[in-house]
Write a structure and sequence with these properties.
- With about 150 residues, this protein is mostly beta strands.
- The protein contains 1 helix and 7 strands, in the order H-E-E-E-E-E-E-E.
- A hairpin with a 5-residue loop joins strand 2 and strand 3.
- It comes from Notodromas monacha.
- This is Dickkopf N-terminal cysteine-rich domain-containing protein.
């Protein structure tokens, strides 16, 4: 039995304590009586995986052409840029400091667009803050008065 088959056998296995799960998994109680074995934390880029949930936020489990195995990788599809429509934050280019946010305008319907963020709580869906490569400028706080000389 190889590593992938062993990990798959452990995924969502019924358990009552962490000892019933494989290494790297924990027992998560769902209905109060019995739990399921789930990964303790996401795998980082380049590590073997079985499904997207195995990987850290912002990474996907994709088959590598050379080896044929599945590894956690950043998506190769084009990420959406500033003010482009989105559904979740993973659609936006996090390296530029963008995440999916609900934008409300006067006399217009609210829409979801990729926009710069200062706090991950502003974003729709999980955000990998450590993947931001651009230093964002500090914007003045609304109502803040600045004196320039």
């Amino acid at each position: 039995m190889d590593e992938d088959e062993e990990a798959d056998a452990c995924y969502k296995r019924k358990c009552s304590a962490n000892e019933n799960c494989c290494e790297g998994s924990v027992c998560v109680e769902i209905d109060g009586v019995e739990g399921e074995c789930l990964p303790a934390d996401g795998r980082s880029e380049g590590e073997r995986c079985i499904r997207d949930e195995d990987c850290e936020v912002g990474l996907f489990c994709e088959r590598e052409h050379k080896s044929g195995g599945k590894f956690c990788q950043a998506s190769v599809s084009r990420k959406k840029q500033l003010n482009e429509g989105c559904d979740m934050s993973v659609d936006c280019d996090i390296e530029k400091g963008l995440c999916c946010q609900l934008q409300r305008r006067i006399r217009q319907r609210a829409k979801k667009v990729c926009s710069y963020f200062s706090d991950a709580l502003q974003c729709i869906g999980p955000v990998a803050v450590d993947k931001v490569k651009v230093e964002l400028p500090k914007l003045p706080v609304p109502g803040e008065k600045r004196i320039y000389f």
